[in-house]
Fold these 3 entries.
Entry 1:
Amino acid sequence: MQKVKKAIIPAAGLGTRFLPITKALPKPMLPVLDKPNIQYICEELSSVGVEEIIIVVSPGSDVIEKHFGPAEDLEKRLLSDGKTKLYEIERETQKFNVRFAVQKEANGLAGAILCAEEYVKDEPFALLLGDELMYAGEGDTPCIKRLVDIFEQTGKSVIATMEVFGDDVSKYGNFGIKSEKDGVFEINQLLEKPSVNEALSNYALIGRYVLCGEVMAKLKTLKPRNNEIYLTDVLDELAAKGELLAALFDGVRYDVGDKAGYIKANVAYALRSKEIGEDIKEYIKELARQL
Ligand code: G1P
């Protein structure tokens, strides 16, 4: 049984949709409540036995590295002021074994994965798209854990999926279903952002994957289409050989790369917060009365 020990988080987008804040602050550092969104993704990985997380960033993203690194002066200050809870919160950011790879060219998802090749080599890896937060529910199995469990049981690559409705199918990767059992689909074909008429099912691929080591090698040998190589081409090959699964995610997915999705994530996480949840709930009720 092959274990998943590496994870890649592509987080190199320039975040131009969030200008001007992303002029100086890299998009992965945008806060959801009090944490940068990239930290939630690292936390999701704490549920699995991943030993190394490779974050693929844009040039000039040193502040992300700083976030996950030591902060001696701040720590000393918090301790001498007796602020142990805050000290622990700060220390939490240092518990991840993170490495950084810089994606110099804007050459898509496959390009981002290849930036992490020197760390991953031919090992299987978890892939977590930096723009998506997955909330499984209090105490429920995190999205990536379900995928890692399935991969380690079956040896097959597996992608998270959600049902979508109407035109939304065209915004995502989509797949044809060979069979389904307990929310796990055997996939026989993959299409990237099909039109509504072309779509093979009502299911969308969402930003969590566990992929076999072969994927990295295949990406390297792939011929570019429109000057770009596509992860979908490799995944479609796996699907054709019956080596690709999809697992239904029944939690909530937040697209924090989109302004509305980002605000929704902040509202939802604020409502769940012990510290300010009640306050925000009252505020939302008051606002709703005026709508
Ligand atoms: C990528 C994948 C797509 C997937 C989507 C999920 O697309 O290529 O298959 O459905 O992420 O968010 P992107 O959103 O990067 O265009």
Note: Residues 259-272 form the longest helix (14 residues).
Entry 2:
Amino acid sequence: MRHTLHFRSLLSGLLLSALCSASFIVESAAQDRPCAIAIHGGADSNPSSDPEVLARKKAVLTEALHAGHQILTTGGSSLDAVVAAIRVMEDSPLFNAGKGAVLTNEGTAELDSSIMDGQTLNAGAVASVKHVKNPIALARLVLEKSPHVLLIGDGAEAFGKEQKVEMVENEYFITEKQRAAWKAIRDRKMKDGEKSKQVNRDQLVKQFPNANFGTVGAVALDQDGNLAAGTSTGGLMYKAWGRVGDSPIIGAGTYADNETCAVSATGTGEYFIRGAIAYDITAMMRYKGSSVIEAANSRIYEKLTHMGGTGGVIAMDRAGVIVMPHNTKAMNYGWIDPAGQIEVGQYPAKK
Ligand code: ASP
């Protein structure tokens, strides 16, 4: 078994010099029937340094990892593991997914999620759902029980009711913290005469340091050698007009292919959609023969960064090699590698 930890400071180009860029890589040699899982709790441009917040997030990430890993070690599928891990994070108010999601300009929660099976290339996704307690579970049902890939809004919820998924009031998702962050933005917009409904993720970070990020995602490799990826989010704080980001878009925020890797993204969704970032990582591996490390680093530090986007991905190949490049200040992460080693935290870690 071999573990390699690389810290990358890509300060070589002027363009990148303002960014704190980093990637965290674990390589583990394949064992007999290895399994592995990696998760993220969002690329964070404004990470909290409060030890209590960090400890609480770490506890949830650890629980999510174990929920997924237990399924993998008992012979379950990577799809089941991804759903189990993401459900834990959706149920936690600490992340921007499920309970605790960011709010639209109207003060409601609208949730997006997707999942993909690397063996069959089947995928399921939902966007702008307002009453589905666990959007990742509904995305999984779209994958398995419908002939479609992406269902949105009321239609997605009607399908969810047919499938008997748990429905909740929209209020369930709304935490005091998100309500306060929303109010601060609304008050500022009112003061400015609300010239525009639009928000920009990067401006939000500067103007509203408490605006919350924390999209969640998971990638997994099961003992049958199948990869899966999933992502779940409330999207962008104060989003308007039914805005949908990359998280429910297959190829942008989520992709999985047994022949290459599984990817879940987080960051400014518009860039991930325009750059087809998740698919592009797999395409580099397939057509150029790149390793998962080269491909993911290249698409985040070169393509996304040069496009002006911020964010990151977690990616895992069929040997369980995990890479987590991001050009934001931090990314909440966790993994259990093929050797069973667990690692959880906020990267870069505080000294
Ligand atoms: N990618 C998500 C979106 O654009 C947001 C995020 O990851 O913070 O909807």
Note: Residues 51-73 form the longest helix (23 residues).
Entry 3:
Amino acid sequence: MKVLIVGSGGREHALAWRLARSGPPVEIHAAPGNPGIAGSGHCHPVRSDDLEGLLDLARQLRADLVVVGPEAPLVAGLADTLRQAGIAVFGPSGAAARLEGSKSFAKDVLLSAGVPTARALLQPKAPCVIKADGLAAGKGVFVCLSEEELAEGLRGVASFPGEVVVEELLVGSEVSLFALCDGARAIPLTPAQDFKRAFDGDSGPNTGGMGAYSPVPGIGHREVEELVELVHRPVLKEMARRGTPFVGLLYAGLMLTADGPRVLEFNTRFGDPETQVVLPLLEGDLLGALAAAAAGDLAGADLGVSAQAAVTVVVAGGDYPAQGDTGSEITGIPEAEAAGALVFHAGTALRDGRLVTSGGRILNVTGVGRDLAAARAQAYAGVERIAFAGSRHRTDIALTASTKEIANRG
Ligand code: GLY
């Protein structure tokens, strides 16, 4: 089977790594991919926003399945372009990807489906949350606790085109819950928690994510089923009722409040870096499940979850969330792997045969162990071995959760 993965980040490297371990033999292609994916697959110089180029490539390769990583090509209609040409694709249509592409559209669907979410406010007044309505690469949400933060948030949101959405501020713990969807059925994957702020102690600017862990203590199989029943399945039903069934990965960003779970946002693709902890724990034939979802029939999908835990630490360029850190030589990846870590490439490039930084989040270092503490120790042992000029990472990924885990064991 030939699979074409669209995208070039850590999420796409984790997908390539996991799909290669699905069971049946698979030939992995990526567009444009990255040097990590190139280690076990074929990378093609086609950008993820070049819809016609991707269609040509999928045709030329005779790809059996296209798996789309990032949101922008989905919102732009890549899945429609491919499906119209008879190519199987794991990813929603442009109409269904509006669940991520427009926050006000997502809110409308949530209200119609009767799914609990943050209340919309007519006027911005601290404390509140201000969001850019459209895609903003993780930078369009402003949590405003004070009048100063509100003024700053309103200035920040003004730099994005489109409407502004204002919501009540919800308090609780956040969890990311993915489900594979075939238009009617939703199969949940193991929940994860990511770390959005740039610096330790959840301080600094929002980023795409500085690390993640899975599973999330207190959210076991029963709680996951309850959440999917409360959120994903009613949304699938509502999207089908509107004539835009959702096929692909529905990622619910949830806040678990004292009054119950509330949807903060939807993404319509695998999360990054959550994928780098969810997939190493997934057992069974992922490729078969993605192909079955693309064909509209997940009924026979055969997936399980290992009893282990995973922690990913993002190693970023010194200026991240800016993207300017390029060209610094990266060393220590073989040593990190020898120490037992999985290393997923994100912002790397090959220059004259040397692996160098190419901006933003550079590498994702994942540890897998019997519990979060063991996984965390393995991830950080890997991080310590990696070096490049200006390298930066958070030191507190999964710290609180693994400490609680140890305390609960008594
Ligand atoms: N980790 C957040 C996201 O993938 O959007």
Note: Residues 221-241 form the longest helix (21 residues).
